[in-house]
Design brief:
Elements (H helix, E strand, L loop, with lengths): L5 E2 L6 E4 L7 H15 L6 E4 L2 H6 L3 H17 L7 E7 L2 E4 L2 H4 L2 E7 L6 E5 L4 E4 L4 E6 L4 E5 L18 E9 L3 H6 L4 E2 L2
Antiparallel strand pairs: 1-12, 2-9, 3-4, 4-11, 5-10, 6-9, 6-11, 7-8, 7-10
């Protein structure tokens, strides 16, 4: 449906702080090692982490996914998470960007697994900042410009993420189809002929 129709960029962002399990110290160490040695994560980058070790070493993953499914259902999205593609991601801040070119048919649904490191998810075009902590859940249009910035900053600055500082975040992300009527309704997306 959305492949042949134009649509607005939604200004609606759904967010909550959910009570999710705490990742183990061993798993956090695994993530940090993978971020440093495999991803070689640079400031401002967002990259995919392997889910394999997390699945094997953290029995909190399944409860996290169920908690997210419960929340999205409560937001009127029905069972959309059950068929959505998902991944484990890491970022060291994030430069201002949107993902419409690659993911224009989707909304992002993210669940942050890291503790509060003084970073916010910033949507400059709608003047919205969301403090990121363990359990922060957010759903937004991939066409909405966003960044991960230092809470005390007015924008993204590489100097806010010095080498050796603990400022990497790990989160789960799902791609929700915009042409699902429940997703479009929740985000107030309207389709028009091209």
């Amino acid at each position: 449906m959305s492949n042949c129709l134009s649509r607005n960029i939604s200004p609606t962002v759904l967010t909550a702080v959910l009570d999710i399990p705490v990742p183990t110290a061993r798993l956090n160490a695994d993530w940090e090692r993978d971020i440093a040695s495999q991803l070689c994560l640079e400031v401002g980058d967002v990259e995919e982490l392997s889910l394999t070790r997390t699945r094997l070493r953290w029995d909190g993953l399944a409860p996290c996914m169920q908690i997210m499914a419960n929340w999205t259902h409560a937001m009127g999205l029905q069972d959309v998470l059950s068929t959505a593609n998902f991944a484990l991601m890491a970022c060291r801040g994030a430069r201002y960007h949107h993902d419409a070119e690659r993911y224009g048919d989707s909304a992002f649904c993210n669940l942050f697994l890291s503790e509060d490191k003084g970073l916010d998810l910033h949507f400059p075009n709608i003047n919205l900042r969301i403090p990121l902590q363990r359990g922060t859940a957010v759903i937004f249009d991939t066409g909405q410009t966003h960044a991960v910035i230092k809470r005390s900053s007015n924008g993204f600055d590489e100097d806010d993420f010095p080498s050796g500082s603990d400022c990497s975040l790990v989160f789960l992300t799902w791609e929700l189809p915009i042409d699902d009527g429940h997703v479009a309704h929740a985000l107030q997306i309207e389709f028009t002929p091209p």
